[in-house]
Design goal:
This protein is an alpha/beta fold. The chain is about 35% helix and about 15% strand. It has 16 helices and twelve strands. It is elongated and about 85 Å long.
């Protein structure tokens, strides 16, 4: 069975995370994604220091491997006349183009929406930026950590006696990529009805604001401000017991629960004197400390079995390295592997959506720089002598053939 987006042609000019993740999601669902990479050097994530300063198989940055499966790599000099001609020809037949250059850069290179849509009126062109394509922050760098701070997200994360805390993942880039995907899918539906493409603008600032919806609706309509608690209460707008608690061997999350039932499950009737809605919020740090004094006496497993018996909302805090072995994660086949011609099997997160008729799949390994340059040029009708000439001129780049890949 082919993917739901089989037949869709995507030209991906994006780099790093914001954009490449969106292109990967489209590729997971069957789209033919051509990743346009810098001549010979490729995506910036191939170069910048990887996690733990260690490359997978001694070859590739894990950050690049994470966001670039199900793509083919075309390594091209975007400023070379012949390289530019190849990209313009591909753009004429593309359904979707993704790019996340700083505003104005890709237009100067000749690959902006106005230039490309003249010869392809059905083109869906998705442009990603940090702060949009106009306004007072236009020249600011649009990096994930910076946006977490500016959007207000960090101000409500962490404890009151600590500095504002960024999330442990690149949440702005990833939410921005999801916004790209839903924008592209909506534009495809519009094109199916009208035959017309359009430009989509996605920025990291609004992506983060949209995912703080309940907080901003509260602030804007009540005038209240959120203040971070001093304890492990997990949200600045929530009362106790909503939070994280130390156990004898780890940590336990306790969510919204009837407080008397929780006290019964913890076998701590003394806690019932806190059983008042106002008190559970106003004295939540004190309540948290009192609950934690109980939970720390037994293991996480003990409390999970005990609290679930009372049908309470609770859950373990699992180390990332242990998540792949979780029984539910294994049951859902949430992780998979893909064979790489140089590295071997690469373990990765599987496609996270289940389709009854058109399942997504990890079909292609993350490519080496220019691994598919020859293949793509052949598909465009270029002869072998023409391809050799383009390689010699520096318009495009292709590596020496690898085992298991096309020459």
């Amino acid at each position: 069975m082919s993917g739901a987006l089989s037949g869709l042609k995507v030209l991906d000019f994006s780099h790093l995370l914001f954009g490449p993740f969106a292109a990967q999601m489209l590729g997971d669902l069957g789209a033919d994604v051509i990743k346009v990479e810098r001549h010979e050097r490729g995506d910036l994530f191939r170069e910048i220091p990887p996690f733990f300063n260690q490359k997978v198989g001694g070859i590739e940055n894990p950050s690049f491997l994470a966001w670039n499966r199900n793509k083919r790599s075309l390594s091209v000099d975007m400023k070379h006349p012949d390289g530019k001609a190849i990209l313009l020809e591909l753009a004429e037949k593309a359904d979707v183009i993704l790019q996340n250059f700083r505003p104005g850069v890709i237009e100067k290179l000749g690959f902006g929406y106005d230039a490309l849509s003249r010869n392809n009126p059905g083109l869906i062109y998705c442009s990603g930026s940090g702060y949009g394509e106009s306004g007072p922050y236009l020249a600011r760098p649009g990096q994930d950590l910076l946006l977490q701070g500016l959007s207000g997200l960090m101000s409500v994360t962490g404890r009151a006696d600590m500095s504002p805390t960024p999330l442990g993942v690149s949440i702005a880039d990833q939410l921005g990529s999801y916004h790209m995907v839903y924008g592209v899918l909506a534009a495809l539906h519009h094109r199916n009805r009208t035959g017309r493409g359009q430009k989509i603008e996605v920025d990291l600032l609004r992506a983060l604001l949209a995912h703080q919806m309940q907080e901003f609706v509260t602030i804007l309509n009540t005038g209240n401000r959120f203040e971070r608690p001093r304890s492990g209460i997990a949200h600045p707008g929530m009362p106790a017991p909503f939070g994280t608690y130390r156990t004898a061997d780890g940590f336990l999350n306790i969510a919204m629960n009837p407080f008397p039932t929780l006290c019964e499950a913890l076998e701590a009737p003394d806690l019932l004197h806190f059983n008042d809605p106002a008190m559970l919020f106003d004295r939540r740090d004190e309540v948290h400390a009192a609950i934690e004094a109980v939970t720390v006496q037994e293991t996480t497993d003990h409390w999970m079995r005990r609290l679930l018996t009372f049908d309470l909302w609770c859950g373990e805090v699992v180390d990332q390295a242990d998540v792949p072995q979780d029984p539910q994660v294994r049951h859902m086949q949430a992780f998979t592997s893909v064979a790489h011609p140089q590295i071997g099997d690469i373990q990765t997160v599987n496609v996270p959506i289940t389709f009854s008729e058109t399942p997504g799949a990890v079909r292609r390994h993350p490519p080496s720089v220019g691994e598919h340059t020859r293949e793509i040029l052949r598909e465009m009708g270029r002869s072998e002598p023409e391809i050799d000439q383009l390689l010699q001129s520096g318009a495009v780049f292709a590596p020496v053939a690898m085992a298991g890949s096309l020459p």
